[in-house]
Structure formats: C-alpha cells, structure tokens
Amino acid sequence: MNSLLITTEICHNSEAHRIEVNLALGLAAYEARVGLLDADVHGPSIPRMMNLKGNPALTDSNLMIPLVNYGINCMSMGFLVEETAPIVWRGLMVMSAIEKLLRQVEWGQLDY
C-alpha cells in the first residue's frame, strides 16, 4: 500500500458515510486502487451505499476477500452479520469484530 487515507466520524450519521463513499469513488475514478473499511457497529450503511450484499469469500489461508463494486474493495460489519438480525454489541464482541476486519482481510494491492 502506497498511501493510507483514514476517515473517522465522531457521531453516527449517514452524511459521514456518504462523504467516505464519494471520496473512494473519486479516487477510483482516477484509477486508484481503493479499499473502503466500514467498522460501524451501530448501523453499517456502506454495503447499501455501495450496492453490495453477501458474505466475503475466504482464501486458502482463511482471510476474507473484500466484496468489490465500482472498482472499490469493500469490507463492512454489515457483511459479518445479518442485516435484519438484532444484535447487542458488547465490548469484547465489538473489539473481536473490528480486529477481524483489520487483521483478517486480504486487501491485495491498494493505493488508498
């Protein structure tokens, strides 16, 4: 990875997600290889905004392969849980899910 661009949001709102998606789409329009990670446990909306559904496939080494649309590699909490399933996130569950997203994804070559 040549560059790392991190966006965070202090409060949960879909406006921040729209900015992140538009930023990723803008970079991809210039043929940059972009990865988008959505670690929002309160309502992951990146799958809906990126028009993605399903579960990530696994590599032989048991790493998740990001789902791709519009030329952008995407990983989201929304891929790890059922969309309509009610979930009560506890501290250890949140940390385990975020660690999985950070350490167990085969992103491939990315520019951002």
- How would you characterize the largest beta sheet? 3 strands, mixed
The average pLDDT score comes to 83
What general outline do the C-alpha atoms trace?
globular
Number of helices: 3
Runs in which pLDDT lies below 50 for 5 or more consecutive residues are: none
Report the structural category: alpha+beta
The secondary-structure element order is: HEHEEH
**Whole-number radius of gyration?**
14 Å
Number of strands: 3
Name the beta content range: 5-15%
How far is it from the N-terminal to the C-terminal residue, by CA? 7 Å
Query: What percent of residues adopt helix (DSSP H or I)?
Result: 25-40%
How are the strands of the biggest sheet laid out side by side?
A: 1-3-2
Quickly describe the structure:
This protein has about 110 residues and is an alpha+beta fold. The protein is about 30% helix and about 10% strand.
Task: Report on this structure.
The longest helix is centred in the first third of the chain and has 16 residues, at 14-29. A hairpin with a 2-residue loop joins strand 2 (67-69) and strand 3. The protein has helices at residues 14-29, 46-49, 91-103, and strands at 34-38, 67-69, 72-76. The mean pLDDT is 83. It is built from 3 helices and 3 strands; from the N terminus they run αβαββα. Strands 1-3-2 form a 3-stranded mixed beta sheet, covered by helices on one side. It has 112 residues and is an alpha+beta fold. Helix content is 29%, strand content 12%.
